[in-house]
Amino acid sequence: MFKIALVFxxxxxxxxxxxxxxxxxxxxxxxxGLCSIGTIAKNKGHSVKIFDQFLHHYxxxxxxxxxxxxxxxxxxxxxxxxxxxxxxxxxRKLKADIGCLCFAGGIHVTLCANQVAMxxxxxxxxxxxxxxxxxxxxxxxxxxxxxxxxxxxxxxxWHNGKNSANxxxxxxxxxQPILDRSLMELNLYSNRGALLNEMPCYSLFxxxxxxxxxxxxxxxxxxxxxxxxxxAKVILEIHELVDKYCAKSISFREDxxxxxxxxxxxxxxxxxxEFDGKLPWECESRAELSRETLELMYAxxxxxxxxxxxxxxxxxxxxxxxxLKEESVLSFYxxxxxxxxxTGALFMFGFPEQTEDEIExxxxxxxxxxxxxxxxxxxAIFPGSPLAEYYAQNLDLCHPITSNxxxxxxxxxxxxxxIEKEHEINLRIRSNRIKV
Length: 436
Ligand code: B12
Ligand code: SF4
What we know:
Layout: E1 3-8, H1 32-43, E2 47-52, H2 53-56, H3 60-70, E3 74-78, H4 84-97, E4 101-105, H5 107-111, H6 113-117, E5 124-126, H7 130-150, E6 157-159, E7 162-163, E8 201-204, E9 207-208, E10 227-228, H8 231-243, E11 249-252, H9 261-275, E12 281-284, H10 291-299, E13 302-310, H11 314-319, H12 326-339, E14 342-349, H13 356-367, E15 373-378, E16 380-381, H14 386-393, E17 398-400, E18 406-408, H15 415-432
Parallel strand pairs: 1-2, 1-3, 3-4, 4-5, 8-11, 11-12, 12-13, 13-14, 14-15
Antiparallel strand pairs: 5-6, 6-7, 9-10, 16-18, 17-18
């Protein structure tokens, strides 16, 4: 049996120099993906501890010290494109100090494994969905040691800069064990749903992936497979959150909670049967649900929906492949308001030749929506999105922040303009919004 430290490092320091809303610097959220990996390992008898750097505001040295104190045999890092540099620095220090086995996984490793492998710091990269592959890696290590794992040929396991059997790991069964939340210091997170009043609000996910193809979205191939956990398992998990953790509300943290209308209908009916529709919840969706669907969601306890609108100007809506229609968006928000569901709307700007008039169009559109919260963000470019390819050919239209992430610049505008514009728009939105 191993002692396993699972680590979620703070966002790389360089991002803190940019006061751009898109980097959401201020709040830590329970790392559900990492907890899912930890649950699998713990269920197999390993001793697991999750280290969330931001939650404790540890400096890098403090984080390293805390991990060393746990004396792990194995360390697993969860890497996004926003914390990859910090994760690499942390792993490098730990390798130098205690020399234990280091794994890295997460969205960034999945999208950019070649690049991460070139750092020569992690012993193994596991790309793709981690539960089954991490489980396999631990069993091989137990039976045949590190040599066994080096010689295994399984899609998604990278060693020495090579993925021995091309491809990434995709779960054979989406119904993984219910998260063991005792692995996270749950009570230290803010535990509030942004549109809900009832606390504590705990997060979970019912699906993975999304069937849409917005061009700014950072997606490995498997995200295109929209898959749902069984409704029975999701309901069981909600019962556990209520009974064991005294949840007063629930937040679904996933790309697109409402994409499968049949699943949504059955789920809502189940929430009515099990909780009498009295457990409030919020979710993320596209802003194009029918009134009938919204009424059913309300009856099932839904009190908040977040949507990315991005832009309503036909030219840029098409350019980012958002495929949202203005009339559907308007009726969605008006229906939500009439029914009693609070809403959030997120917009972006910074498209290559976007004019001031086009930005004004979106600001006015946002101002007239009956939302609880609306905000604009300067568009950011992440690896794995079709836009990353476009901007790699149009470097004058973006401001690179790291080798992986950039902020988009409208032609002729500089970074300072974009950031000031974002502040100015959001100030206007906050002071002029119609009252809901
Ligand atoms: C919920 C969510 C949030 C929440 C909470 C984040 C959190 N800490 O949980 C909020 C709203 C706060 C948020 C904020 C942001 N998010 Co966000 N978010 C998500 C979302 C929708 C779900 C995350 C999740 O729980 N996934 C489900 C779990 C199961 O997946 P997972 O965490 O990736 O873990 C699996 C694998 O990656 C792997 N794995 C992970 N870690 C490890 C470690 C080891 C050792 C191993 C072996 C395997 C492994 O196994 C896990 C289980 O299968 C994802 C999209 C997505 N589908 O993942 C975007 C996503 C992660 N977010 C993204 C972005 C860009 C942001 C923001 C910048 C805001 C924005 N404008 O979009 C901020 C940045 C926040 C920050 N400071 O880091 C991008 C990241 C892109 C990238 N290349 O890094 C994603 C992928 C969305 C997208 N497609 O563009 N986000
Ligand atoms: S931005 Fe949202 S709707 Fe668009 S592809 Fe990504 S997850 Fe799906």
